[in-house]
Amino acid sequence: MTTFSPADEEKRRGVRQMKITATGLLLLVALVYVLAKWASNAGAGGWAGYVAAAAEAGMVGALADWFAVTALFRYPMGLRIPHTAIIPNKKDQLGVSLGEFVGENFLSQDVVRQRLRAVGIGSRLGAWLALPDNTDRVTAELATALRGALTVLRDSDVQAVVGEAVTRRAGAQEIAPGIGKMLEKVVADGGHRRAVDLIVARAQSWLILHDDQVMDAVQGGAPGWTPRFVDKRVGERVYKELLRFVTEMRDSPEHPARGALDRFLTDFASDLQSDTDTRARVERLKGEVLGRGEVQDLIASAWTSVRSMIVSAAEDERSELRLRVRASLLSLGARMATETKIQGKVDRWVEDAAVYVVTTYRREITSLITDTVASWDAEHTTKKIEAHIGRDLQFIRINGTVVGSLAGLLIYTVTRMLGA
């Protein structure tokens, strides 16, 4: 509201032309009045009185409407007459009234619900989404928005939040009972036996490949005063017994060591759930693990990997992410376009959201109108409003001149008829 656009200037020229036309018509009826009075005094006949009466009333109507139109924008002839220059003097009050009008008539709960219900957003949105071109456009826009959001977010901030959240969540919840229940179920289902099979099989293979190292290790632990051949025989014996034990354990599902391991795991699962000391030790171990820098770095680096994966998927039009989003949108659009139940849900969601916004932020919305109007310069605002509606207001002056003339002629005629 501080400058005039080319369109505004064009409208101002139109207002000036209409002012000239209305003023010219006033001058015309004034000239007619003078000539009619002169003709009447010169004995021209009764018609002159009718013309003079019509012209006189036309002048009165033109002047009255000129005063009314002028009083909207400025003081008539510079005279500070009360209730004139209404727009510049009442600009702020007009802004408040406009804000209240908008709030009461456009931002009320009933009006919003009625208007949105009449639009039928659910069915229209569904029909629009059901078109593949529109779905492609929405998918591309969502991908762009996702990339933009991930670009704006600073990795260090997100990593700090993720690390803090994971650490806080893990630290706040005791993990021993959960681990105990899981271990108990694994043992009951026999799921641990696959791990035992793998371990003993790998141990047996390792012993076969590293027999010399095992025997050397046994011989190296023998006392220095024993003969070397005895150490060698002991090392060979220990290696053979160890290999035999591992091989039997691998080949025999009912091996006593396996049963002992089952009992140990069962007891350990029970202790994790019910033994106070065991649970406390697990919690201390958990705290030590979470406090290590390597673990924190691992948690923080997870965001970098996730972010890179999401950005790559969003940029690739043929990625699984975008294809799934597109398929979901197409399916949703087709269902919204045909199923009245879904349409009703969408309509209610939109209505509830709109009602929440207008009821919660009505004051902020109307204050935007009020504050904006209050910030406008009074003189410039007056000129701009006059440029937009002044041309039509000048027609009031013209109509006032014509209607006044006709009314004056009618009054004069009736008066003469009654006098006659």
Give an overview of the whole structure:
This protein has 420 residues and is mainly alpha-helical. Among the domains are: 6-89 and 377-419; 171-291, no CATH class. It has helices at 6-41, 47-73, 86-89, 91-105, 109-119, 121-129, 132-152, 155-172, 176-189, 192-209, 211-220, 228-251, 256-274, 276-291, 293-315, 320-338, 340-360, 362-375, 378-419. Helix 4 (91-105) packs antiparallel against helix 18. The two termini are 61 Å apart. The model has no long low-confidence stretch (mean pLDDT 82).
SSE layout and pairing:
Elements: H1 6-41, H2 47-73, H3 86-89, H4 91-105, H5 109-119, H6 121-129, H7 132-152, H8 155-172, H9 176-189, H10 192-209, H11 211-220, H12 228-251, H13 256-274, H14 276-291, H15 293-315, H16 320-338, H17 340-360, H18 362-375, H19 378-419
Helix pairs in contact: 1-2, 1-19, 2-19, 4-18, 5-17, 6-16, 6-17, 7-15, 7-16, 8-15, 9-13, 10-12, 11-12, 13-14, 16-17
Number of strands: 0
Count of DSSP helices? 19
Instruction: Identify low-pLDDT runs.
Output: none
Label the overall shape.
rod-shaped
Distance between the termini: 61 Å
Helical residue percent band: over 70%
User: How large, in whole angstroms, is the Cα Rg?
Assistant: 47 Å
Main sheet makeup: none
State the order of secondary-structure elements, H for helix, E for strand: HHHHHHHHHHHHHHHHHHH
Strand proportion, as a percent range, falls in under 5%
Mean pLDDT: 82
Structural class: mainly alpha
Protein name: DUF445 domain-containing protein
Transmembrane segments: 20-36, 48-73
Keywords: Membrane, Transmembrane, Transmembrane helix
GO cellular component, one term: plasma membrane
